Amino acid sequence: MSNKESFVKAFKELTGLDDDKNTGTADESFERLISEREFIGEPAGDMRMRTEPVAPKKTEVYVPDRTRGDGTYVTQGMNIAGVVTSADNIEVLGRIDGDVDVKGDFISEGIIVGDIAANNVLTKKSSVVKGEIKAEGAAVIEKDVTVIGNITAGNIRIDGKVKGNLFVEGNTELTANALVAGDIQTARISVSSGSRIKGSIITKSVETQVDEDEFDIEV
C-alpha cells in the first residue's frame, strides 16, 4: 500500500468515514466530520470564508511629526549650494551658499552666503548672513547675529551686528546690543542706551516734513 493510500485510510478511520467501518447515518458522519475539522484547526462557519482572498497587510511608514510649522526646514548639518526659491516659509539651521527668494517668511539660525528676499526676515542665535537682506515687512536681527550687507525693510529691529547701510520705510529700533557700521535712512528711529552707530542717520517721513518757513523768524 502506498503512502498516499495509507494516509487516506488513516484519515477515514480517524474521521469515521471509512466505508467498511461506517455504520452510522449520514448526519452522524457529517457531525463527526465537523468535529474532526474543528479539531485539526480548519475554520468553522460559512464555507465561503475559506475562499475569500486575504488583503495584504499595508506597510507602515514612519513620518516624524513636524514641530516647526509649514514650509521648508533645512536641518543642522545640511548644506545647500545654489539658488533657493520657495512660495512658502523657510527655516534654516544649516548652511546655504546662494541667494534665497522666499514668498513667505525666512527664519535663520544658520549661515547664509548670498542675498535674502522674503516677506519677513528673522535671524537669531548665532546666525551669520553675508549678503543683502530685503524684507517687505519686518527684518529682525537678534543678539549675537552678524549681518554683512545692506538691509532694506519696511521696519527693522536690531540687537546684533550689521555692517552695511539700512533703508527702512517705517520704524528702526536699535536695542542695547546693536552695532551698526553704516548709514541709516529711515522714517523714525529709536536708539536704546548701549547701542552703537558708526555712520550717519537720515530721517525722512511725509508725516514729519518741515517747511523751511517755519524757521524764518526774527531774532
Query: Number of helical runs?
Result: 2
Largest sheet: number of strands, sense, barrel closure = 14 strands, parallel
SS elements, strand count: 22
Radius of gyration: 40 Å
Gross morphology: elongated
Euclidean distance between termini CA atoms? 139 Å
Portion in strands: 35-45%
Q: What is the chain-wise order of helices and strands?
A: HHEEEEEEEEEEEEEEEEEEEEEE
Structure classification: mainly beta
Low-confidence parts lasting 5 or more residues at pLDDT below 50? 33-68
Mean pLDDT across every amino acid position:
78
Helix content: 10-25%
Which labels suit this protein?
single chain, 219 residues, mainly beta, 14-stranded parallel sheet, 8-stranded parallel sheet, 2 helices, elongated
Describe this structure in words.
The strands form two sheets. Strands 1, 3, 4, 6, 7, 9, 10, 12, 14, 16, 17, 19, 20 and 22 form a 14-stranded parallel sheet that branches. The protein is elongated and about 135 Å long. Helix content is 12%, strand content 37%. Mean pLDDT is 78; it is low at 33-68. It has helices spanning 3-15, 26-39; strands at 72-74, 79-81, 84-86, 90-92, 95-97, 100-102, 105-108, 111-113, 116-118, 120-123, 128-130, 133-141, 146-148, 151-158, 161-163, 166-168, 171-174, 179-181, 184-186, 188-191, 196-198, 201-203. The protein is built from two helices and 22 strands. The longest helix has 14 residues, at 26-39. With 219 residues, it is mainly β.
